[in-house]
């Protein structure tokens, strides 16, 4: 009998992207880490760990916005801890290895982990000595060490933030600087009500990314309307769409993106907890994506605050959406094909999956 958990444990999973922004203890805390984060809790805030998990469990029951939830717990943050940043990146790779992942692209905002050379300094911190550039170096170091020790491949995507357009040109410059050192793409995250057409810095950053051959993804159509997805594709030249559920509300756009083989980075668990989708998983947009054989992947989103791992998203898709082993294989191959790896590495990854799944790669799906 097929088991989604067993499928994950076979180490045959690619995760085309992993949203990893929130809430980790610093290395001197007593808990393990789940992802790279926008803030690292200081030693004296270990007690707040359980409060954060409680918040995560109650999100789908309350009417608070994500902004208000963040404000509620900002006192737990203390960015700018160099060893914490490096170690969290390392332990992120360890955790993904335990989840059966063989390739992952993790995204984070360098500026939200910095406490110097960033305006304003996040979380009302005092000025320190960790710049966005330092953050990227530390994350790259931790990911590289994790790759070596846990035998999986990890790359990163640097995030622009919609509410901080003045950071975006620096983000694309960091993408260019570390393009050969593990950074494979640029992302735009945050409040989808902020119109990119009115924010020239975001647009210019993405134009520079296109010019320099930097891969591009955009959070769009999660909470925002289909017009945000259209904007991501037409204005920012996105190659992948983060979430993208509300694309289904514009059937002309949906048909266009299907024909373009646009990749949707979906996160079932978080889409319920954030209220982005109907809490009834049988009505989730993924059901339609699957039926229409759309190009998409299953991914984790903020694994600590949602207390979720990849196998939970897989199990949910299997139990509530009717996903079969063959569909998991198909979406993982699509995930690998849509990765931001260089072509040679991408081809090797795809071939590895075909071999592991004992599938024949023909001209149609090559």
TrEMBL record:
Residues 81-355 form the Adenosine deaminase domain. It is an enzyme of class 3 (hydrolase). It holds the Pfam family A_deaminase. InterPro entries: A/AMP_deam_AS, A_deaminase_dom, Ado/ade_deaminase, Metal_Hydrolase. GO terms for molecular function: adenosine deaminase activity; metal ion binding. Its cofactor is Zn(2+). It is a peripheral membrane protein. It is found in: Cell membrane; Cytoplasmic vesicle lumen. This is Adenosine deaminase. It comes from Esox lucius (Northern pike). The lineage of its organism: Eukaryota, Metazoa, Chordata, Craniata, Vertebrata.
